[in-house]
């Protein structure tokens, strides 16, 4: 994987299962909310751990309410109802109460936002005044170093970070976000600057403690088409993420931009940030460019991570999926370029892994192991 990131020669492309391996799943944990303890998950987890190029991603630690300032403004309530867990967060500021409600179900490894903090222009104005310390977090360098020891030569450990736009967009429903992002740009920039003032020094500290790491930067897709025009991608993403990339490069690290969906009109802007990599490069119809196009136009600048759809892994018969893998491997490595990692756009989040799904993951590994570059 390190040779791939550096654009050096490799004997085969890297292959990675994205979330499966980015976190070490525990199939022996009996918690009813651990979908990975279902018997059908075990073989897939072992396949990822033993035969893929693992990238452990260490996320932001201690979000929300972990300090004295936060306790003045934020109240968090947790409860379980049946086989669902709920979390309600209430921010009190200048006489306003802003609430967020989320739900996690036992059979799905994802969190659904049922209610968002910002619903009206008054909520937006109030939120701008919330002290940024309420959202304090840390990058867990000790955990990352522990992953190094545990992984050995099976993979690498890196950081997973939300950018300012990711923090901001998560405060709204998608419908409200697009409207406010288009109509209230000054207020949006105030929010983006607020979160940037939190993120930048945290990144700077982390890269000093753990230099030379791969970072995944999440959030740019919120400003991609069809949600927002490229001009606002330039403002909301390039205007803030470029500094994150510069900080990562400061100690020899690698910055990978994560952006689902349409890419064609924002690819020059992603390169403008100075990023080293891009995922998941979804093919049409989910995206709007073929992997071949991205490799030809931007392969010298970016390590490409992709471009298999999770829906294809779960639904295509193995004979048809095999052809998708062959095309991805050929287009991802064609001509000259910095590097390629065969990777799906996401991972299953349900409790059951079908035989068809497992066979398609095995196909990814087998074809990559036998692919010569």
Unreliable residue runs = none
SSE order, as H and E? HEHHEEHEEEEHEHEHHHEHEHEHEHHEH
Query: What would you call the shape?
Result: globular
User: Total number of helical segments?
Assistant: 15
Main sheet characteristics:
8 strands, parallel
Amount of beta strand = 15-25%
Secondary structure tally: strands: 14
Strand order across the largest sheet:
1-14-13-12-11-10-9-2
Indicate the CATH topology.
TIM Barrel
CATH class: Alpha Beta
Helix content: 40-55%
Can you walk through the features of this model?
With 373 residues, the chain is of the alpha/beta class. The chain has one domain: TIM Barrel (Alpha-Beta Barrel). The chain is built from 15 helices and 14 strands. The strands form three sheets. It has an eight-stranded parallel β-sheet. A four-stranded antiparallel β-sheet has the order 4-5-6-7. Strand 11, helix 11 and strand 12 form a beta-alpha-beta unit. The longest helix is centred in the middle third of the chain and has 25 residues. It starts with a helix and ends with a helix. The model has no long low-confidence stretch (mean pLDDT 96).
């Amino acid at each position: 994987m390190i040779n791939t990131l550096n654009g050096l020669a490799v004997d085969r492309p890297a292959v990675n299962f994205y979330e499966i391996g980015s976190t070490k799943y525990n199939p022996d944990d009996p918690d009813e909310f651990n979908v990975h303890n279902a018997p059908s998950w075990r073989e897939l987890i072992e396949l990822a751990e033993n035969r893929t190029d693992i990238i452990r991603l260490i996320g932001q630690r201690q979000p929300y309410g972990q300090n004295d300032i936060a306790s003045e403004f934020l109240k968090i309530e947790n409860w379980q109802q049946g086989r669902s867990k709920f979390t309600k967060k209430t921010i009190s500021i200048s006489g306003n109460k802003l609430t967020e409600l989320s739900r996690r179900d036992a059979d799905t490894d994802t969190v659904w936002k049922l209610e968002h903090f910002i619903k009206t222009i008054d909520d937006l104005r109030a939120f701008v005044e919330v002290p940024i310390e309420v959202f304090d977090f840390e990058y867990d360098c000790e955990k990352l170093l522990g992953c190094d020891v545990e992984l050995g030569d099976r993979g690498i450990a890196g950081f997973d970070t939300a950018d300012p736009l990711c923090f901001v967009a998560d405060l709204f429903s998608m419908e409200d976000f697009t409207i406010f992002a288009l109509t209230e740009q000054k207020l949006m920039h105030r929010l983006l600057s607020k979160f940037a003032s939190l993120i930048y020094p945290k990144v700077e500290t982390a890269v000093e403690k753990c230099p030379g790491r791969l970072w995944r930067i999440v959030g740019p897709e919120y400003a991609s088409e069809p949600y927002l025009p490229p001009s606002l991608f330039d403002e909301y993403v390039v205007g803030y993420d470029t500094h994150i990339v510069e900080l990562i490069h400061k100690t020899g690290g690698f910055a990978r931009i994560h952006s689902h969906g349409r890419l064609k009109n924002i690819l020059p802007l992603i390169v403008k940030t100075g990023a080293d990599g891009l995922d998941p490069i979804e093919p049409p119809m989910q995206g709007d460019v073929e992997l071949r196009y991205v490799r030809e136009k931007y392969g010298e600048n970016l390590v490409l991570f992709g471009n298999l759809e999770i829906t294809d892994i779960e639904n295509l018969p193995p004979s048809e999926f095999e052809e998708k893998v062959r095309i991805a491997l050929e287009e991802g490595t064609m001509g000259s370029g910095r590097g390629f990692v065969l990777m799906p756009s996401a991972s299953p989040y349900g409790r059951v892994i079908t035989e068809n799904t497992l066979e398609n993951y095995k196909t990814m590994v087998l074809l990559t192991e036998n692919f010569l570059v």
